[in-house]
Amino acid sequence: SELLELAEKMPKAELHLHIEGSLEPELVFKLAKRNNVRLNYASVDELKAAYSFNNLQEFLDVYYAGMSVLLTEDDFYDLTWAYLKRVHEDRVVHVEIFFDPQAHLERGVPLSIQLAGIHGALEAGKATLGISYRLILSFLRHLSEESALETLQLARPYLNQLDGFGLDSSEKGHPPEKFARVFAECKKLGKPITVHAGEEGPPEYVWQALDQLEVDRIDHGNRALEDDALVQRLVATGQTLTVCPLSNLKLCVVDSMQDHPLVTMLEKGLKATVNSDDPAYFGGYMMDNYRAVIDQLPLTREHLHQLARNAFAGSWLSEADKKKHL
Ligand code: ADE
Ligand code: ZN
User: Fold this and answer.
1) pTM attached to this predicted model
2) For domain 2-317, which CATH number applies: 3.30.70.270, 3.20.20.140, 3.40.50.510, 3.30.160.340?
């Protein structure tokens, strides 16, 4: 369709992508073999069969098991390079990606190894594919404040390779305020922050992200729609929401794509963007997400332009670089 062609040809930015969530089943098996890691799945098909989730936690259990094959610098490089090559086909020209260092530190993989692979591939992608990037260290909210503070200490020698900080993993029971002191430290470093809030958790968690963490973006934010005063606040301050349609469908945040609030968000003046979250697990990359919402929602040309603009405007590019895209 005409809308699909527009979505394909627009230069796009992806602001919500967990690099470990781009680990395709085929690469899981290749790396398992390379590293002599035993998997609890006999084949790619058996692994894929496990990709059926009723909620966030059921997904996270499979996600952390999948990433257990990531051990060497090459593994992190190959993972990141495969993602960049794939989204280049979708005309993604800027990416702001998360990684979960604590999940790899737990397996004994030093931060230096993780970063050498991820950052090396990001630099190669910039040089050969022309994809600009920001790299976001994301803390795991199911772990303690102490663990997050230790991780931040470990990150201090590498701050030149870290462009911001995030918060992900099991949302319910782990409100943003649990990490108020951690993110105050991040702010002191002069880095932007973004936290997952209102995916499964209540509007209260979005308020906390704004008032207690002073975030620069909200990841997901779906449940903000339950609170009119919160919507007003997000609109008035121009907060960017990094929305993930296929993720929301696969994690049962919405019952069907027809029920997805993306258009409602735009109509209310919220700065929503389209992102893939964990594309290897949720059925697709950037264009698969656009295709799904174009097929199932009453999107217009203006909405598509708005979505693309919102992503560049809400990115952490310099004002000069944003202007080139807006
Ligand atoms: N980690 C990876 N994907 C996530 C998501 N959608 N929500 C919370 N934590 C995550
Ligand atoms: Zn996410």
Assistant:
1) 0.98
2) 3.20.20.140
